[in-house]
Amino acid sequence: MTDQTRTEMEAAAFRRLVGHLREHTDVQNIDLMNLAGFCRNCLSKWYLAAAEERGVEMDLEAAREIVYGMPYAEWKAQNQTAATPEQQAAYKARKETLGPKH
Q1: What helix, strand, coil percent values describe the chain, rounded to 5?
Q2: What is the model's pTM?
Q3: What is the pLDDT of residues 26-85, one digit of tens each?
């Protein structure tokens, strides 16, 4: 496999992941964090970091719009629900286990 093919496959997988997350707005970011250790905001930050590494000018809001498919504030207003005490407790426990980088 060539590097170009690998890059194209990785890009396709990323686009599919982002599309899947856009379709499943019922899955809250805190649920993703508790289950997988990353969320839509993490993907946005990783996208921004990749842009910065390549000298592409971008800010966090632009990266979030790429991941969320709309401005972040709009997505939050339409889709985000308040975290339950159980979700918050699980998030806190996970952060304590994984450390400050997460």
Answers
A1: 75, 0, 25
A2: 0.88
A3: 999 999 999 999 999 999 999 999 999 999 999 999 999 999 999 999 999 999 999 999
| Distance separating alpha carbons of residues 92 and 29, to the nearest angstrom | 14
**Interval 50-67: pLDDT, tens:** 999 999 999 999 999 999
DSSP for 46-60, please give it.
Answer: HHHHHHHHTT----H
CA distance 93 to 47: 27
Q: DSSP label at 99?
A: -
Question: With contact defined as beta carbons under 8 Å apart, do 15 and 9 qualify?
Answer: no
For the record, the structure tokens of 22 come out as 């856009």
